[in-house]
Amino acid sequence: MLHVLFEDSALIVLNKPAGIPVQSDKTGDTSLIELAGAHCGQALHPVHRIDRPVSGIVLFGKTKEAMTALTEQFQARSIEKAYLAVVQQMPQEPTGTLVHHIRKYEARNISKAHEESRPGTRRAETRYRLLGSSDRYHLLEISLVSGLHHQIRAQLAAIGSPIKGDVKYGFRRGNRDRSIHLHSWRLAFEHPFSGEWIQLEASLPEQDAVWEAFREVIAAL
């Protein structure tokens, strides 16, 4: 069942469960854009994507004009977007800005974050702050300044704080459902036609003990 956060004649915003691809991939599994298109009764246009094992906000345009206008906001960095990430190893500082140079390796579908610029790399910048801690894990709020392939995953791994369940980036054990504890949490943007400032928040995945441990912390923000 789709969890629709916002919908009008121009766009639709959904809270994606972990494990569903935003668009069709080589597995042939049903994608979010197919499910949302069936819900809307029309073809949709992706504005941005999140990785298959990630949950949370995904935005689609219902028209090419809406998609183009929203994409321009992403490119201009005027859209406000925040993630939640659970890590086992807390960063050295409770708040900070991570700057790396990322290279994507297409064949392995993985990115590597380097300290220095190298041929084929692009500069990546991510801001984080510690929101709370449980007995075993720490909850970070993540804000992207740039938006590169697997940026959050690669940069947190580079500082020794891989996301829970993310074995591709160095976490020791995967989650049973193959998700990772990264959630596209908040999104704020200007409506492409009305100019209204829209602010949305995606609720946490349910029936997950780790997310549940931080639910009160997040509710208090």
Would you give an account of this structure?
The protein is α+β, with helices and mostly antiparallel strands and 221 residues long. The chain has a domain at 4-79 and 187-201: 2-Layer Sandwich (Pseudouridine synthase). The protein is 18% helix and 34% strand. The protein has 5 helices and 11 strands, in the order ββαββαβββββαββαα. The chain starts with a strand and ends with a helix.
Quickly give the structural class. Answer: alpha+beta
In whole angstroms, the N-to-C terminal distance is: 28 Å
What is the name of the CATH class of the domain at 4-79 and 187-201?
Alpha Beta
**Total helical elements:** 5
Q: How much beta, percentage-wise?
A: 25-35%
Radius of gyration: 17 Å
Quantity of strands, as a count: 11
Largest sheet: 11 strands, mixed
The name of the CATH superfamily of the domain at 4-79 and 187-201 reads Pseudouridine synthase
> How much helix is in the residues?
10-25%
- Averaging pLDDT over every residue, what do you get? 95
Say what oligomer this is: single chain
Identify the overall geometry: globular
Reported by name, the CATH topology of the domain at 4-79 and 187-201 is: Pseudouridine synthase
Task: Label the CATH architecture of the domain at 4-79 and 187-201.
Answer: 2-Layer Sandwich
Report the order of strands and helices. Answer: EEHEEHEEEEEHEEHH
Give the low-pLDDT segments. Answer: none
